[in-house]
Amino acid sequence: MGNKKSFKERVEKTNHWLVAFVSIVVVLFCIVAYWNSSCYNRIFEGYSDLQQYYEAVKQCGDDMKKYLTVGEEEYLNEYKLSMLRAKTGIRDLLENPIMNDKWRFHLLKNMLIEYEGSVQELMEQYMKNEDAASYRSYYEHFLKNERLIQETATNYYHIVTETMDKQKSKLSVAQALTYLMIIITSLTILFWTRYISKLFYHTISKPLQKVLESIALIKQGEYNLEMEPQSSLEMEEICVALEEMAGKIALNMETQKEKAELEKKLAKSELKMLQNQINPHFLFNTLNTIYCMAEQEGAFDASDMLLKTSHLLRYSLEMQNRLSDFERELNALEYYIEIQKKRFDDKITFHIDIDNDKEIKKTSIPAMILQPLVENAIQHGLKNCVKDGAVTIQIERQGHRLIIRVSDNGQGMSQAELKQLIENDYHKKDGEGLGLYNVVHRLQMYYQDFDVAIKSDIGEGFEILLTVSA
Fold first, then answer.
1. Could you tell me which residues are beta bridge partners of residue 466?
2. Where are the domains of the chain?
3. Degrees (nearest 5) of the Cα angle 185, 186, 192?
4. Got the DSSP string for 278-305?
5. What's the Cα-to-Cα distance from 65 to each of 70, 72, 142, 264, 351, rounded to whole Å?
6. What confidence score (pLDDT) does residue 392 get?
7. For residue range 344-364, what is the model confidence (pLDDT) as tens digits?
8. pLDDT by residue (tens digit) across 261-281?
9. CATH class, 348-469 region
10. CB within 8 A of 365, min separation 6: which ones?
């Protein structure tokens, strides 16, 4: 799958970039919004502070005049509070960072100080002499300072207005920047939404449609799928799984087809076997007739051979492609050996050696396994034997393994001849060979763990060793 990324990974990566970008824009937007809000607030605070200053100075004058007229301490205290408000207003104006021409506000502060000084002088004279004529000049000086401050109001309101105009241009730029960031953020989100939509279509929706089409083909019996390369890991895995499933279905269908053909052939074979059952019966009846005739005529050897041949033939026909056991196999082998003894007289002797006789005889084994091995020893191992030939059949158990050894003392053959004979025999179901094809094939079908070994050399005879887990 190489460097392909999953749909989840792509979306997560895009989300990371989007979140980072939107976070930056939001931070900038907050900074600009805070700056705008701060500027507006400071402008209105400056206007409010200036208004507070002039109103407080006017209130100071009114309170002082009332105090001088009626002499009540209450008005003096009101004057002090109004003076404090005036000082607070001018102080806030001087501390306001957006106000231009701060030196002008320092002048306004100095005028307030001068005004407060004139009030102090007036109060001192008033306290010394209650005669109005004695402090008139101080009173007029107080009125003059108050009037001078009030006359500056227009100019200073104009100064604050100019400051507002200058800040307004900056606020317009900030506002335009805010709109631009909103537009960029909206376009980014729109682009991201479009990208995710296209990504979903190309990596999920479109490939999924192809998968559904492939499933429809599978339903129609088309299993040879050629899936296109996918751009995401998820769909790649789905396509690979679908191809594997189609392959398994195709293999299963082929297996079912072969099984059906085999069952059809088997049915035909069984029918043919049923039709030909008369042939074995006819043969057995004929052999029995000849056996009876031989008995009546006193040909006891001939009758004995006919009887053993009949038993051997019946066993081979009845147990064809069926399971038997070592006891019946050995009985059939005895019939075969007795027949061969009549044939070869004393040229060949046979030895059967079974370890743990009772246990082994009850062990299941495919029918007609031992006789072909002994026949092979006679035909190939002892074919040129004129006397003292020997065939040995050994069966023993070693743990869970059963070992069958059939050997002869014939002249043997070279390793090259043995190899060629074995190779030819394993590719022939019938014919002149070692006769191992059918034996090995049936043992492999019955035993999961099976092994065959063949040993021979010039002058060392011939040995076939079969090992099975039983």
1. 404, 452
2. 7-188, 348-469
3. 90
4. HHHHHHHHHHHHHHHHHHHTT-HHHHHH
5. 9, 11, 10, 132, 155
6. 92
7. 877 888 888 887 667 788 888
8. 756 665 555 445 444 444 555
9. alpha beta
10. 323, 324, 325, 326, 329, 446, 470
Tokens of 103: 């030196």
- Report the C-alpha gap between 363 and 324 in whole angstroms: 9
Residue in 367, 293, 302 with CA at minimum distance from that of residue 330: 367
User: How is residue 140 written in tokens?
Assistant: 């007029």
**φ, ψ of residue 324 in degrees (nearest 5):** -125, -155
Q: Is the pLDDT of residue 67 over 50?
A: yes
60-86 as b/e: b if 16+ CB within 10 A: bbebbbbbbeeeeeebeebbeebbebb
* Burial bucket for residue 331 (CB in 10 Å: 0-12, 13-18, 19+): middle
Q: pLDDT grade, residue 457 (50/70/90)? A: confident
pLDDT at res. 377: 82
Query: Which backbone phi and psi does 382 adopt, to 5 degrees?
Result: -120, 25
Please give the CATH number for the structural domain made up of 7-188.
Answer: 1.20.120.1730
Beta carbons within 8 Å of 251's beta carbon, 6+ residues apart? none
Query: Phi and psi at residue 394, in whole multiples of 5°?
Result: -120, 135
Question: How many other C-beta atoms can be found within 10 angstroms of the C-beta atom of residue 342?
Answer: 13
Q: What is the pLDDT of residue 431?
A: 46
* Pairwise CA distance, residues 24 & 45, whole Å: 31
Instruction: With beta carbons less than 8 A apart as the criterion, state whether 57 and 115 touch.
Output: yes
Rounded Cα distance, 7 and 238, in Å: 13
